[in-house]
Design a protein that fits this description.
Elements: H1 16-27, H2 31-34, E1 37-46, E2 49-54, E3 57-63, H3 65-68, E4 83-87, E5 95-100, E6 106-111, E7 116-122, E8 126-131, H4 139-151, E9 155-160, H5 170-177, E10 185-187, H6 196-200, E11 208-212, H7 219-227, H8 229-234, E12 253-255, E13 261-263, H9 266-269, H10 271-274, H11 283-289, H12 307-313, H13 319-328
Parallel strand pairs: 3-5, 8-9, 8-11, 9-10, 11-13
Antiparallel strand pairs: 1-2, 1-4, 2-3, 4-5, 6-7, 12-13
Bound molecules: guanosine-5'-triphosphate and zinc ion (ZN).
Family: Belongs to the TRAFAC class YlqF/YawG GTPase family. RsgA subfamily.
Subunit structure: Monomer. Associates with 30S ribosomal subunit, binds 16S rRNA.
Organism: Deinococcus hopiensis KR-140
Length: about 350
């Protein structure tokens, strides 16, 4: 098994981490069987059918029986972004997924009232949270997204899109920056291709980024502008895909011309649906605890009998989160949460 340097899948994010994890698995097979084994990355998924990118390009793949038996356990299911060991079968047959390699990062949402987590993407390095300076702007919700992304061990970057809609973006940017220390915020206008240069800097070869945000904030527009017109039209992952073959799976992982990968996946897209379902964290935690404050309109600053201040002292809520929460209150732009 070769290392990552010079590997044909290096641009797709293959690193020594995965090479080292794959080596013992491959070595356990007889030389004959071993020659049928290859590695690949999931770039599209639709139920049990996967689209896997191997050194030969995009191919269909199905779960091997042993993996399918564990389908009831959501954690063992391959997800978009996963690196796999696949077995090449006689011509015409889909690849067999025989092993899911360990994940560097997992991007999960809480299900069953926070009791279990469902992994929706793996090996994601950074997440672009897209919002706009209009009725979509909701600082409380943004704060939850930032917290959720960080909890996944992934780096959040906020994009304020459609900056052409307002004369002054500074108040929006200031409020977002206050959500977390060191949180990068970029002002863009995807439709006018403004501010995209700064984003391209994130897409180093092998880096995997995902886009999230409510419907209509401009995720598709941004994806198309970053990929360039042709790539977006064909949904092509790399120039080497010239077979024009028919595929049944939705391809949702794209390679940018300058290197780097972008996941634009329906399951990730509608973050409003998974929005920390049932998991009190960050701002939600504050709102829950505030029910025990002595005063109903407690600002959690100097009031006696403040349950939130107490929770901060006990280390249940960080002072940073409380400050961000307080700054977000009394916002002229705060609207009821969209359902
Ligand atoms: N004014 C303005 N409009 C934009 C900008 N970027 C995108 N739009 C428009 O916003 C609308 C929604 O854009 P989409 O890219 O479809 O948004 P989306 O986030 O992909 O939406 P879903 O597919 O529903 O998740 C379209 O009419 C775009 O033309 C921008 O920078 N400025
Ligand atoms: Zn209080």
């Amino acid at each position: 098994m070769k290392g990552a340097v010079g590997h044909p899948l290096q641009d797709l994010g293959w690193t020594d981490f995965f090479a080292q994890a794959a080596a013992p698995f491959m070595a356990a097979f007889s030389p004959e069987a071993g020659t049928e084994l290859e590695v690949g990355r999931i770039v599209g998924a639709q139920r049990a059918a996967y689209q896997v990118w191997t050194a030969q390009g995009p191919e269909e793949a199905l779960l091997a029986g042993t993996l399918r038996q564990h389908a009831a356990e959501p954690l063992s299911q391959p997800v978009i972004g996963d690196w796999l060991v696949v077995q090449r079968l006689p011509a015409g047959q889909p690849l067999r997924i025989v092993h899911v390699l360990p994940r560097r990062t997992t991007f999960a949402r809480a299900v069953n009232g926070g009791l279990t987590e469902q992994i929706i993407a793996a090996n994601v390095d950074l997440v672009f949270i897209v919002t706009t300076p209009d009725e979509d702007f909701d600082l409380l919700r943004l704060g939850r997204y930032v917290a959720a992304v960080r909890q996944s061990g992934v780096r959040p970057v906020v994009l304020l899109n459609k900056t052409d809609l307002v004369r002054d973006t500074a108040p929006f940017v200031e409020q977002i920056r206050a959500l977390a220390s060191g949180l990068p915020v970029h002002e863009i206008a995807a439709a006018e291709e403004r501010g995209l240069g700064a984003l391209r800097a994130y897409f180093q070869p092998g880096v995997t980024a995902a886009l999230i945000g409510s419907s209509g904030v401009g995720k598709s527009t941004l994806t198309n502008r970053l990929l360039g017109r042709e790539a977006a039209l064909t949904g092509s992952v790399r120039q080497s895909d010239q077979q024009g073959r028919h595929t049944t799976t939705a391809r949702t992982l794209y390679a940018l011309p300058e290197g780097g990968l972008l996941i634009d996946n329906p399951g990730l897209r509608d973050i409003a649906v998974w929005d920390m379902a049932g998991q009190p964290a960050g701002f939600e935690m504050i709102e829950e605890v505030a029910a025990d404050c002595r005063y109903r309109k407690c600002t959690h600053t100097t009031e006696p009998g403040c349950a939130v201040k107490r929770a901060v002292q006990q280390g249940k809520i960080t002072a940073e989160t409380l400050t961000a929460y307080q700054q977000s209150r009394g916002l002229p732009l705060r609207r009821p949460k969209k359902r």
